[in-house]
Amino acid sequence: MNSPIVTRFAPSPTGYLHIGGGRTALFNWLFARGRGGKFLLRIEDTDRERSTPEATAAILRGLTWLGLDWDGEVVSQFERKDRHAEVAHQMLSRGTAYKCFSTTEEIADFREASNASYAVFRSPWREADPTTYPDAPYVIRMKAPRTGETVIEDRVQGTVRFQNDQLDDMICLRSDGTPTYMLAVVVDDHDMGVTHIIRGDDHLNNAARHKMIYDAMDWPLPIWAHIPLIHGPDGKKLSKRHGAVGVEEYQAMGYPAAGMRNYLTRLGWGHLDAEIFTSEEAMKMFDLDGIGRGPARLDFKKLENTCGHHMARADDAALLHELTAFMAVAGLDPLTETQRDLLSQALPFVKTSAKTFPQLLEKANFSLIFRPIAIDAAAQASLDTVSRGILKSLTLQLQNALWSKTELEPILTAAAAEAGIGFGKLAAPIRAALAGRTATPSVYDMMLVLGRDETLARLAEAAE
RNA sequence: GGCCCGUUCGUCUAUCGGUUAGGACACCAGGUUUUCAACCUGGGAAGAGGGGUUCAACUCCCCUACGGGCUGCCA
User: Which strand B nucleotides have any atom less than 7 A from protein CB atoms?
Assistant: First the structure.
């Protein structure tokens, strides 16, 4: 039996949850959940200058909204700093690392002297005799091999080779005793038992350095899968000028989480003709081989379309629940009991044509407004004297009607015939009366949701 | 500068040496219709460029172009 799969998402808490990070988390989640494995969460907060608890909270909120649940406690990388230091010292005693007393000034001078800011720094302390060590602060550097090559077997990018003379002796432990990212990731991934590392391909080069640390400690290698970054619609690296980059912004725009997951899964991953699917279905299909090698562009039109499918298929109660949550983050007034009741009755038919929550609210607007109904200019145009008269007589005819579509249909049809107009001509003033606008759901659907009393009241009001 | 990665319709992708290069979004044209949508049908649309390897290349190799990443006592 194979060892259980363990994946992780390891964001640094310096801001909101980036949409690209959300997708990375999603891929890790799908992969682990689809194979009975574990999905862990670790906050890479070793940079004390830039890490904030607010950012951590925002990241957790974003993941929670996306529906990506993690196993166990959230790991704080910073809190593991003693363990990192311990490993650095183990490397020292294994002879795979050394103390370097070069100061940042000396390194800067070296770069300046070599007239190239990108020159590879070679520490003079690499082979120094410990008896010559000064009583001064030092960093612990990896004693990286200088010849040969380091080969990464990446599940997305394939075999990637690095010439070792291109790599420097990276710092593992800073002079203040805190670990650098390079050391911390490896130690944490090892200790947490991470078997598969799925992350952005901006880390592909780092993987070579990471491998050197695994090798230095004689630790088994994880399986790497470096996924391409997400780009904006123009093909450039996604940035704020493209609009929404934070996951929570998508929530605020009203995209349902299930649609968001579906869209993000298909962004950079494909499996035959699979397009619309639930997360459960995605877990069964998702595999590393299906991940594309090129960066994918965000396409809001397709996002919307995907969300539309999920909106239409959503369970009414769950949809109402998510809509309520959306209204809260969007800063909208909470629904009154009456609104909630009418809205849930409207949901079955308004959800089939809405793609986002604002659209859903827009289509269900008739169920949320109160008398007197504000009638916009376009709708007002259909309320001339003639149609007001028709509405008035219709009000009387509906007085004792049984309130079902089969009963209402013949009444409205007859009313149109009697007035010598087509049904469309009759529907327009009814829309105006019931919804105050020209674009509404079917007049029958609205009448049924509103009920006899409210319908008659609105018709009478418009007929005045 | 060096090193690394990428490149199939406008977009997301399928294809894993032999297909009329498939699907989806978007777009265009019809249809349905009680408005807006939604929905249905049809259509146009692709292997970055150049060399190889092979009976055969989108698929394998090389070069170029373009895009991206790394090159920190950031992650």
Answer: 1-8, 10-16, 22-26, 34-39, 67-75
